[in-house]
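For homework, think about our next protein:
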Amino acid sequence: MTKVYLVRHGETEWNAKGKYLGLTDIPLNGNGERQAKALSSFLSKERIDAIYSSALTRTIQTARIIAEPHGLKVSKIPGLNEIDFGEWDGLTYFEIKDKYSNLADDWLNKTSEVQIPDGESWEDFKTRVLSGLRKILNENENKNILVVSHGGPIKAIISEVLGLNLTSFWKIKQDRGALNVVEFFDGGATLTLLNDTCYQK
């Protein structure tokens, strides 16, 4: 069995302001650093064999803080990056709705049919995220792995594990700095922890 600690990065200024944040490389804010340090302390006694993150600063910062007690280096996997929001990056939902009419609602209700202007298609996004995950699993059979990524990729992974459709995807909550645990074994996987932030006080 391979145990994966799946972590959403800590808060950024754009997160705090409700802005869509895809590939724009925004660092953690002070609260995000505190969230990462709290999780680092919480996981300090756990056995972790390797740590991975997406290639974006906010996940790398989160991963390095968690890695410190374990003396591990962080390996970057670009496939774990957030979806490319194209022209929507840096806009709030209401700004997107105002500028792009019903496309914002379609993104929530008909996700696979929507092409974000200058952004990434859902299928391309899902394919690269799951490919990145498979690479990690293939390299770390029967180990305990920590992966720091983003809300979108984590929801895509959890949806795949649970066999959920896109409508259910939007019902999965991922708070900033949240911890999830998935156990992978021959022929399947089990979600054993979802969106845990109990360590944030």
In short: The first strand starts at residue 2 and ends at 8. The CA atoms of residues 44 and 69 lie 6 Å apart.
